Amino acid sequence: MGNVNLPTPVAVAGGALCLLAGYLVGAIAGPDTASRTTAEVKSYDSGSGELCLTGDAISDQPGADDGELCGVWRRTSGDRVPRDGDAFRFVSVVSSSGDNSATYIYGSVVEK
User: How is the chain split into domains, by residue range?
Assistant: First the structure.
């Protein structure tokens, strides 16, 4: 067997094609990413941290019940406390452990 030398442009094109193929396989077969959604604040209890949201986008969210999504609001310090009627951009996560499940809402009030 002898040595095989490829011209540089052919080697670069082959490498680029491999990278593109890997990206496409990852994008198609990879995990879904969470998408941020905007809804309206129905209620917020500062004592328990329970936040209830309503709106058109709620029906597609995991953990939603009858057009309403309620869960524990996870926030960073300094976030404005939501009031009834505020627009709220969020991502919701439902955590299940045995017979128990909890809904966590990560997000903040949309500033106008």
Answer: 37-109
Per-residue pLDDT for the chain (112 aa), expressed as one digit of tens each?
556 677 888 888 888 998 888 888 877 777 665 556 888 999 999 889 899 999 888 877 777 888 889 999 988 777 788 888 899 988 888 888 777 888 888 888 887 6
DSSP line for the chain:
-------HHHHHHHHHHHHHHHHHHHHHHSPPPP--EEEEEEEEETTTTEEEEESGGGGGSTT-BTTEEEEEEE--TTPPPP-TT-EEEEEEEEEEETTEEEEEEEEEEPP-
